[in-house]
UniProtKB/TrEMBL annotation:
<dbReference type="InterPro" id="IPR005672">
    <property type="entry name" value="Phosphate_PstA"/>
</dbReference>
<feature type="domain" description="ABC transmembrane type-1">
    <location>
        <begin position="142"/>
        <end position="350"/>
    </location>
</feature>
<keyword id="KW-0472">Membrane</keyword>
<dbReference type="InterPro" id="IPR035906">
    <property type="entry name" value="MetI-like_sf"/>
</dbReference>
<dbReference type="InterPro" id="IPR000515">
    <property type="entry name" value="MetI-like"/>
</dbReference>
<dbReference type="GO" id="GO:0035435">
    <property type="term" value="P:phosphate ion transmembrane transport"/>
</dbReference>
<feature type="transmembrane region" description="Helical">
    <location>
        <begin position="32"/>
        <end position="50"/>
    </location>
</feature>
<feature type="transmembrane region" description="Helical">
    <location>
        <begin position="87"/>
        <end position="112"/>
    </location>
</feature>
<comment type="similarity">
    <text>Belongs to the binding-protein-dependent transport system permease family. CysTW subfamily.</text>
</comment>
<dbReference type="Pfam" id="PF00528">
    <property type="entry name" value="BPD_transp_1"/>
</dbReference>
<keyword id="KW-0592">Phosphate transport</keyword>
<feature type="transmembrane region" description="Helical">
    <location>
        <begin position="179"/>
        <end position="206"/>
    </location>
</feature>
<protein>
    <recommendedName>
        <fullName>Phosphate transport system permease protein PstA</fullName>
    </recommendedName>
</protein>
<feature type="transmembrane region" description="Helical">
    <location>
        <begin position="332"/>
        <end position="353"/>
    </location>
</feature>
<dbReference type="GO" id="GO:0005886">
    <property type="term" value="C:plasma membrane"/>
</dbReference>
<dbReference type="InterPro" id="IPR051408">
    <property type="entry name" value="Phosphate_transprt_permease"/>
</dbReference>
<feature type="transmembrane region" description="Helical">
    <location>
        <begin position="56"/>
        <end position="75"/>
    </location>
</feature>
Amino acid sequence: MSSSTTSPDTDRTDLHTPLSGVPLTHGQLPKYGAWLVLAVAVLAGLALWQFADWNIAGAAVVAAIGYTVVVYAWARAVEGARKAKDRLVTALVTGAFLLALLPLVSVVITVVSKGLARFDTEFFTYSMRGILGEGGGVHHAIMGTLIITALATVISVPVGMLTAIYLVEYGRGKLAKAITFFVDVMTGIPSIVAGLFAYALFALVFGPGVRMGIMGAIALSVLMIPVVVRSTEEMLKLVPNELREASYALGVPKWRTILKVVLPTALAGIATGVTLAIARVIGETAPLLVTVGITTGDNFDPFDGRMATLPVFAYYQYVAPGTPPEPALDRAWAAALLLIVIVMALNLVARLISRLFAPKTRG
């Protein structure tokens, strides 16, 4: 036998020999190392902004890049390439999130800071009848927005819910596919198209130049219906088929099963979807500009003449402020702030409805 042949004992010994010079573990950054680097980067950005006369956006970008580079280099030197890549990706994802959040925070801060100046009793209780300069309020616009949005909800919710029930419970074949296709198309149409549709519809009956609150409600309902259909359809699909089958087994007809079993089970989700649909259309401006117009006084009859709404009120206060412009601009910012507050309240109501009326489960 050749002397170069190794014995089984030698092989077994080599397998159990420790790997010399290969570390099995890496070091770890201090517990607050990343937070310390972040604090230094924030202070550096503030210094560039305050003392070096940098733009705040440029200072923030430099601070973010500096933090990312320092954390990655430190982690690569101490923890190794794998952990360093993990920290790099975490920093990039967090930076992307903050970048997306920045416009929202900026809008909220700007509107709140400029709109609070006119958040007083007069603003909520007076209209613009006879007002040319300072003073005046949005009472007429608030009432007009509530009336038109309520009418749009009355029109949209039954149509949307019945359409969703048909698609989930009855719809089969080409008709159901066609309805689904048109609902998808309606979801993406520009809001001005809805306004032009409502104007053309009423102009055929009442003639050119007609302006009424019900026209705005029809335009908003065109935007609301696809949202209600989609949200209701998804909620109905979540209802377990076992509930339907149990009802059928007891001899309950299909329509009564839908009315007494399916809809109550999905009620919380449907109500949430309807509330979010209202929040989606309550701030629309383009369709109301075309169909409702603007007025300076109170008009609570949606079937007779122009009405004021908050979005259109804010628009006209901004584009035609008059002389001096400051009072009108203050009213525009206050109306915008009021719209944001209403939309936030509707979203909170939707969450509350979802939590309170959701089906209770055991366990």
